[in-house]
Structure formats: C-alpha cells, structure tokens
Amino acid sequence: MSEYIIGIDVGSSKICAAAGKLDKYGRLQIMGITSANCNGVKKSIVVDIDSTSESIKQCIDGLERMIDIKITEAYISLPGGISELVWNKGVVAVASEDREIKANDVKRVIKASKIITIPSDKEIIGVIPQQYVIDGYDKIKDPIGMSGLRLEVDAQIILSQSTVVNNLFKSVDKAGIKVAGVVFQPIAISEVALKREEIERGVVLLDVGAESINIYMFEGGNLAGISTIALGGNTITNDIAVCLKLPFSEAEKLKIKYGSVGVDSNNNDFKIEVNADYNEKISVGCNTLKQVIEARVEELLYIISGELKASEHYEKISGVVIVGGGLALIKGIEDFSREVLQKPVRVGTPEYIGAASPLYSAAVGAVKDASDSMKDRNFIAKKEKETEKVQREWTREKNKKEKEEEKNNGGFITKIKEFFTDFF
Are 81 and 72 in contact (CB under 8 A)? Predict the structure, then answer.
C-alpha cells in the first residue's frame, strides 16, 4: 500500500477513485481508475451515510481488482462548494542562530496564520499559502534556505462546516478506508486540468456536477474566489425525462450517448429506440433530443455568465475550463459555451494514460496533490539532512583547526618559557 497513492472524489451521482504511484524518476503514473454510482450525496453533502459508504466500497473494490492490492487508506477530495475562504496573515521570528529559514519556521508561520476567530459550527480544514514575506520583501514562494529575521505568510484559510466534513469522513470510514488526508478540490483539479500560464493570467474553472456547479476563479497564480450554483447536469436529464416521457435512468443514458449542442455537420434526424416504462420501447427523434438539451444547457450557461459578470475578476478572465460530467461530456459544448460566455472555452482533462476524462479530474487531482506533498516533504527532509551533514563537517574541520592552532601555540609558548628559564 505504501507505494500507491489513492484519491477519492465523492460526487452527487458518482464516486470516482484513482490509484497512482511515483516511478523511479519521481513522475506520477496513474495505475488504475474507476467509478460507481452514488445516491447518498446531494449538492456535495452526504445525506445518507450507509448508501454513500456502500458506493465507496463498491468503487474501491473495483479499484482493488485493477491494481491487485488491498486498499486501506485514501486521500479525499473536498469540494470547494461546501467550503469558505478567509484571508489571514501569520508572523514569526526565525528561530535559528544563523537566521536561515528552515521547514520548522514555515510550519510555525502557517500555524500562526490559523489563529483566527471562527464560528462554532465550522472548522479549519487547510491553509493555502499565497506568498511569504521575509523582512519586508514579498512575493516569495519557497522561503526555505533563505536568510532573514522575520517571516510572514499571506494565506487563505479554508473553513468548512464540521458536520458536513464529519459525515463525509464517517462514510469513508464505514467503507473500511482510513482518511490519509484531505485535498482541497479546486487546487487538486487545477494541477491536472489547468496550465500554469492560465492560472497566472486568470482563468475560470467550472466544475459541473450532477446537482451543483462550482465556479473557481484563479488569478495571479492563486485561487481568487469560489461561488456555487445549485443546478447541474441532472436538470438536463430531468428535462429529457419529462419532455420525452422516459425514466430518469434511460434519459441519462440518452444524454451521455447522443447528447449534443450547437451546429452539427452530420445533421441527420435519425430515430433512437429507448426502453420506456413497463418494458415498452419508444422511438425518440435525435433533433428533438438535441432541442431539449440545448434549451437547458443555454440557460445554465447564461446563469454561469451572470455569476461571472457579477464577479470583480471578470475582466481579468482569459478563458474558461470545464470539468466534471455535467456539461463537459456533451458534444459541441466548447463552441456552444464560447458563444454564450464570450470567452475562450475548453474541456479540461488530466493528461494521464487511462484517465483522460473530465469525469476523473478531481480523483486524479487528489492523487497528484498528495504525491506532490510527499515529494516536497522528502525534498525538505533530504535538504535538511544535507545541511546538517555540511554543518557537522564544517564544525569538525573548525574544531580540528582550533586544536591544531592550540597545539602550535602551546608549543611556541613552552619554548619561550624554556628560553627565559635558561636565560635567567
């Protein structure tokens, strides 16, 4: 289990799980990925622990068969929609005598940034350092190894409702999986679906799920804002079911297999045979299905556009990236969204073999974030060991040199004493 990193994304319609490990060059490889249907989560909140834990267990069982190991712990992706960002600053004095900033100083300053007043029903689940400041010099990303007297951090504190997080943890624990850590979803997805240039320039990440749309705004290399719309892909499926008088499950299959929007070069109005209630089959026109889907997708996009335009970051947005299964899997969504949002749009997918689907962005992102943290910890530990080794060698050489000087000086003084003794 030690060589594998497991990430789990608990969504409103699906549980996705990914397994990855680092190769000998330190690069992440995704070794397995799977999903299972889930009915115990509504709008990113667990409403049925038993049902959710059963779905997690089913998903993990499938992943275990793929990678042929027993999974006992995993990193959980926590949706941004159930979280709140609060800005705060931490300040500490550098502890070492030589004024070199070490990993422990960074830990202390991050801990200091957590000292804020929070409501009784919420808890701190993480900290995102935005920049470090050393003796007044800002925009420092990694202060370890640098010299200074005073270390500050400007950080975003992630708050979430205690009951919501506890119910999620209980669901995972009941499935027989230990929570190894929590990964903040917008950061996790950005690592596998966004380009560094996009994050620096300004980009919107649309995570469209079954029952909610999470809008994450990035600017200047950092997460700048979060907003949530309580609508998602299920509203499209529900429209198909109502308009065409189909069961919800059949409407979902139709949407996934034949769903499209915008101008289609192969505009053939062929008939699709679908199972209706009571084992009765009906024919559905492809154009009719497309009209139903287009009407709802257009409405969702206009709601998203209104949310973006109301934001202070709208003018700095260079593009929009769509992930999740609510909109990203619909054919023609990029061009159709571009017309409504008036911004460049693309579908974000993880660039890993076997995981190149917008559905798996959060699960793969959780694995990536956890693996990066492990590499950072190993690098810091290695760096500190090397520094200690150099310090020991330097101290040894210094002591040796001092002893030699004492010995030489001692011999010289003895000769002087003997000279004066003989003289007098």
Answer: no
